[in-house]
Write a structure and sequence with these properties.
21% helix, 8 strands, globular, 129 residues, alpha+beta, 29% strand, 5-stranded mixed sheet, 3-stranded antiparallel sheet
Length: 129
């Protein structure tokens, strides 16, 4: 999945007039790209579960508007991230090892830090729980 997510972001999106392949679907294609670039994306509409993909950025901080949400900031860090290091080797959420390739919306809402150690080859043992 990590390889395919990166390939889709690299090959099917750009900032030109034809930057989206196919139908924008009322913003869903762009929303998927933004979330995937951060390192996670929704599994299915209406579910509060996010699959972990392959982030484009080394660090992202989500600062929810406290006026509308009682949510703390949520940070995603991708260590050793690069175009070649697109595979997750290990992960931790708030300092606790994360051995599954997904997490819930509550983790974002409660705030904290998701750390993804990236590498050049898939780690087939990570996320197999």
């Amino acid at each position: 999945t990590q390889k395919i997510v990166r390939e889709v972001m690299d090959n099917f999106y750009d900032d030109g007039p034809a930057g989206l392949c196919g139908n924008e679907d009322m913003g869903q294609m762009s929303a998927w790209y933004i979330m995937s670039a951060m390192g996670f994306y929704p599994v299915a509409p209406g579910q509060n579960i996010y699959s972990i993909g392959s982030p484009l950025f080394n660090k992202i901080i989500i600062h929810p508007d406290e006026k509308y949400n009682n949510i703390k900031k949520f940070t995603i860090e991708a260590l050793d991230n690069s175009p070649d290091n697109k595979y997750i080797q290990s992960a931790s959420l708030n300092g606790i090892p994360l051995n599954k390739p997904y997490f819930g919306h509550a983790e974002i809402k409660n705030g904290g830090t998701l750390v993804l150690q990236m590498g050049p080859e898939p780690n087939e043992k990570w996320g197999a729980e």
